[in-house]
Amino acid sequence: MSASGGSKAIIAALSANLAIAVAKFVAFIFTGSSSMLAESVHSVADSGNQALLLLGGKRAERARTRTHPFGFGRERYFYAFVVALVLFSIGALFSIYEGWHKIADPHPVESPIWAFGVLIFAIIAEGFSFRTAIKESLPHKGDASWVRFIRRAKAPELPVVLLEDLGALLGLIFALFGVTMAVVTGDAVWDGIGTIMIGVLLAVIAFVLAMETKSLLIGESAAPEVEEQICAALENAPEVTKVIHLRTLHLGPEELLVAAKIAVDHDDTATEIARGIDEAEQRVRAAVPIARVIYLEPDLDRAEQAPSSQVR
User: Fold this and answer.
1) Beta bridge partners of 245
2) How many CB atoms sit inside 10 A of residue 219's CB?
3) DSSP type of residue 143
4) What are the residue boundaries of the Cation efflux protein transmembrane domain, all occurrences included (predicted)?
5) Any idea what the CATH number is for the domain that residue 276 is in?
């Protein structure tokens, strides 16, 4: 997944959220609605999250050092994980607290026209942002479902922006529901209920993001189909008879470490084995361009050497 697509979606979301945050705070000042306050904090948190994603992408481009010989590609996963923590701590917990406070001490929504106007504007702006995220994700999603794309994507930016934009749209709908019910019924408790709904929604999204980015952060292998391509490329080298075992690890979204033990003919000379390993590496890089770090260990196929009675 190219970083450009993710950056475009992040910038679109950041621009929308900054404008929406200002509008929501203005609406909160005029209405006193807890739903509007929760949505204001939600937009501020989202803006900070998008800034973190941009920062992570920039820091991940640093060249490798002696203490970090494989580079800094996984910093993108770290900052995506921080985004999940921010979304939960600032967005979800604040919204749930504010909603509980409004239910315990309800006060009417004043000048609701401000809330309705800002919420409609925010829904339109978030819709454009969400559309951009979907458009940038489609080439990478392929035929997979959206759930599978979010779970399997190795670049965290697009899944994070997709979930944030989806959460923002649903949160706006919850806020609109809470404010509308509070105005129609004259019961401000509905405003608090809408606020708690926003908080629960953000908590769920934060949990999903945390689980997915944690998996990437501690290290994920390549997808099964990618590992099959690597095995095929290795076994197509003349000096390699088979792949005994293979391990892969994403050092970053666009950088894969490949470690394999390969079986070679016991009659091959050291020169032939070295040449075969070089050719095998070239075949792997041609088949899987992100396989940038490759370690191959030659060995003999023990199964072929064992007596026929011991082979299963």
Assistant:
1) 261
2) 13
3) T
4) 10-217
5) 3.30.70.1350
* pLDDT for residue 260: 93
CA nearest to 194, candidates 286, 82, 259, 119: 119
Q: Residue 310: its pLDDT value, please? A: 38
Q: What is the three-class DSSP state of 20? A: helix
For the chain, what is the domain count?
2
pLDDT for the residue 302: 65
Domain boundary among 201, 218, 235: 218
Same domain, 214 and 71: yes
User: In angstroms, rounded to a whole number, what is the distance separating the alpha carbons of residues 63 and 262?
Assistant: 31
Gap between the Cα atoms of 20 and 24, Å rounded: 6
- Tokens read off for 126: 């978030």
Q: Would you state the pLDDT for residue 1?
A: 45
List the chain residues with pLDDT less than 70. 1-6, 302-312
* Domain span including residue 286: 224-310
Calculate the average pLDDT of the chain: 84
Kindly compute the dihedral angle of the four CA atoms of residues 36, 40, 42, 45, in this order, to the nearest 10 degrees.
-170
Sequence-ordered list of residues with C-beta below 8 angstroms from that of 99, at least 6 positions apart, any chain: 34, 38, 192, 193, 194, 195, 196, 197, 198, 199
SS3 of residue 71 by DSSP: coil
The CATH number given to whatever domain includes residue 114 is 1.20.1510.10
Same domain, 205 and 250: no
Q: What is the largest CA-CA distance in the chain?
A: 89
pLDDT at 303: 61
Same domain, 28 and 146: yes
**How far, CA to CA in Å, does 275 sit from each of 99, 243, 281?**
68, 17, 10
Please tell me the distance from the alpha carbon of residue 308 to that of residue 286, in angstroms, as a whole number. 37
| 299/258 Cα distance (integer angstroms) | 16
pTM of the predicted structure, to 2 decimals: 0.74
| Nearest alpha carbon to residue 250 among 287, 293, 213, 221 | 221
Residue for token digits 């900052």? Answer: 79
Q: Of the residues 187, 218, 249, which one is the last residue of a structural domain? A: 218
